[in-house]
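Lab meeting, item 3. Inverse folding demo.
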C-alpha cells in the first residue's frame, strides 16, 4: 500500500511567527521549516518533537483571515510514497476531489486534497523532508 502514516494536521493561524513562538515555548515543539506556498499568498510552517517519522503540526497563514474563535483545523494529511499513483487511484473512486491537479511546493513536496464522507478535507502528501 502506498499510504504510510499520518503526515501532519494543518491548523489555520493568523500569524506564523506568533504561533511558532507559542508552540515552541508553551507546547515544546521544534520549528522544522517554513515554506512559502506556490500560490504566493499562503505560508506554511512545520513543527514537531524532533522524532524520526513523527506526525507533524502544520501551521497555515494566509488561507482565511476570518478564523472562528476556537481556531480551525483545516485538514488531515497522510504521507504517501507516490502521489501521482494515489491521485490516479482516487480519481477512479466515488470520491469528491478538491484539487483537479497535484500541487508542487517550492521545496518539491507534492500533494492533493479530496473530501471525506462528511466534507472533511483529506490530503495525500508526498514529502521531500525525511
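The presenter then showed the designed sequence:
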Amino acid at each position: 500500500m502506498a499510504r504510510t502514516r499520518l503526515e501532519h494536521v494543518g491548523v489555520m493561524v493568523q500569524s506564523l511567527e506568533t504561533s511558532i513562538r507559542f508552540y515552541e515555548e508553551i507546547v515544546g515543539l521544534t520549528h522544522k521549516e517554513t515554506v512559502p506556498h506556490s500560490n504566493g499568498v499562503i505560508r506554511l510552517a512545520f513543527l514537531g518533537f524532533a522524532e524520526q517519522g513523527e506526525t507533524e503540526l502544520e501551521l497555515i497563514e494566509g488561507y482565511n483571515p476570518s478564523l472562528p474563535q476556537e481556531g480551525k483545523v483545516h485538514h488531515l494529511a497522510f504521507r504517501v510514497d507516490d502521489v501521482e499513483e494515489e491521485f490516479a487511484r482516487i480519481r477512479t473512486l466515488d470520491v469528491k476531489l478538491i484539487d483537479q491537479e497535484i500541487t508542487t511546493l517550492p521545496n518539491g513536496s507534492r500533494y492533493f486534497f479530496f473530501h471525506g464522507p462528511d466534507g472533511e478535507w483529506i490530503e495525500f502528501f508526498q514529502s521531500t523532508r525525511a
